[in-house]
Design goal:
It is globular, with a radius of gyration of 18 Å. Helix 4 (135-150) runs parallel beside helix 5 (179-195). Strand 10 and strand 11 (273-277) form a beta hairpin. The protein has one domain (6-277): Alpha-Beta Barrel (TIM Barrel). The chain is α/β, with parallel strands linked by helices. Strands 1-2-3-4-7-8-9 form a seven-stranded parallel sheet. 35% of the residues lie in helices and 19% in strands. The chain contains eight helices and eleven strands. The structure holds zinc ion (2 copies). One zinc ion binds next to loops.
Length: 278
C-alpha cells in the first residue's frame, strides 16, 4: 500500500515498462491512488533498448489524453516525460506534458556513448575505456551531466540524482564513503539547489528491489544535505510493473524522516506541488 496515494515516476510499455498503460492505471485505482503520473523515456538519437521511439511518443501522448477522460472520476492522471540529457530540446513537445523529470542514463566520452545504469560490465567499460580506469573522473563527468540535465529550464524534478551507484556495490569502483567522492556529489547538489530553488528532488526507491540497492537515490548523506538546504523532495517508486506501485513506501517514508524531512511533495493535475506531512 502507498500511504501517499500518488506516484509520478511510472513506466508503461511505450518505453521499458512491462505492462500496458491501462493495466498500470487499474493497479493504481485498486490501490486507491489519488494521482498517477507516467514518465516515459524520451526518444533518443541513437540505438537503445529502453526509450520511446518518436512514433511511440505520439501514441503515448494520445493514449494519456484518452485515459484522462476515461478515468476522470477515479484518479488524476499526469502525462510526464523522463527527459534524457541526450534528447534535444527541439524534439520534445513540452506543451503536451504535465511534468518533466530530468535524468542522466549515459555519458559521452570522445565520441562514444557509455551506459551508466545498464550492467556492471558496461559500467566497467565506462570507467576503463572512457576514463582510463579513473573512476573519480567518471564520477565527475556523471555529476557534471546531472547538473546540466537538472538546470534545463523545463525540468521540474531531478531524477535519481546518484544513479551511478547502481553497479558500485561494495564500493567496487569508487568509495562512496570517501570525501573525494562525496565532495563531487555534494557540490553538484548544492550547485543545483542554489540555481533552481523551484526544483523538486525525487527520492527514487525503485532500484532497491530491482537492482538490490541498499538505499534509495539519493544516498543518506545527500538526503541530509538536501534537508539542510530546505530542498523539496518527492517519493517515487520508479515503477516498471503494477506491483511496484504498492511496495516500498513505508521504508521510503522512514528513510526521508531519518534524514530530517517532515514533508514530501506530490504534484497535482493543476500543476501545484502539494505539501504532505510524513
Ligand atoms: Zn531513469
Ligand atoms: Zn525511470
Amino acid at each position: 500500500m502507498n500511504p501517499l496515494q500518488a506516484n509520478l515516476h511510472t513506466h508503461a510499455d511505450f518505453c521499458d515498462g512491462q505492462k500496458p498503460l491501462e493495466e498500470m492505471i487499474r493497479a493504481a485505482v485498486d490501490l486507491d491512488y489519488l494521482a498517477l503520473g507516467f514518465s516515459s523515456h524520451s526518444p533518443l538519437p541513437f540505438a537503445n533498448d529502453y526509450a520511446m521511439t518518436p512514433r511511440a511518443e505520439a501514441a503515448y501522448l494520445d493514449a494519456m489524453d484518452a485515459m484522462k477522460e476515461k478515468y476522470r472520476d477515479d484518479l488524476e492522471l499526469l502525462t510526464g516525460l523522463e527527459w534524457d540529457l541526450d534528447t534535444p530540446e527541439g524534439f520534445v513537445p513540452f506543451s503536451r506534458y504535465d511534468f518533466i523529470i530530468g535524468s542522466v542514463h549515459q555519458l559521452h566520452v570522445k565520441g562514444k556513448t557509455y551506459a551508466v545504469d545498464e550492467s556492471r560490465e558496461s559500467f566497467a567499460v565506462l570507467v576503463e575505456e572512457g576514463f582510463g580506469g579513473d573512476a573519480l573522473q567518471a564520477v565527475q563527468a556523471y555529476y557534471d551531466a546531472v547538473v546540466r540535465s537538472a538546470l534545463r529550464p523545463q525540468v521540474d524534478i531531478v531524477g535519481h540524482f546518484d544513479l551511478l551507484r547502481k553497479y558500485n556495490d561494495r564500493n567496487g569502483f569508487f568509495d562512496e564513503t570517501a570525501e573525494s567522492y562525496r565532495k563531487i556529489a555534494r557540490d553538484a547538489l548544492i550547485g543545483i539547489v542554489n540555481q533552481r530553488k523551484d526544483l523538486v528532488f525525487e527520492v527514487n526507491f525503485g532500484g532497491m528491489k530491482r537492482a538490490g540497492l541498499l538505499t534509495p537515490y539519493p544516498d543518506r548523506f545527500l538526503m541530509e544535505h538536501l534537508c539542510r538546504l530546505n530542498a523539496r523532495i518527492t517519493l517515487q517508486a520508479d515503477a516498471h510493473a503494477p506491483n511496484a506501485l504498492g511496495e516500498g513506501w513505508d521504508e521510503a517514508i522512514r528513510y526521508a524522516k531519518e534524514a530530517g524531512f517532515r514533508y514530501v511533495y506530490r504534484l497535482r493535475q493543476d500543476a501545484i506541488w502539494e505539501r504532505m506531512q510524513i
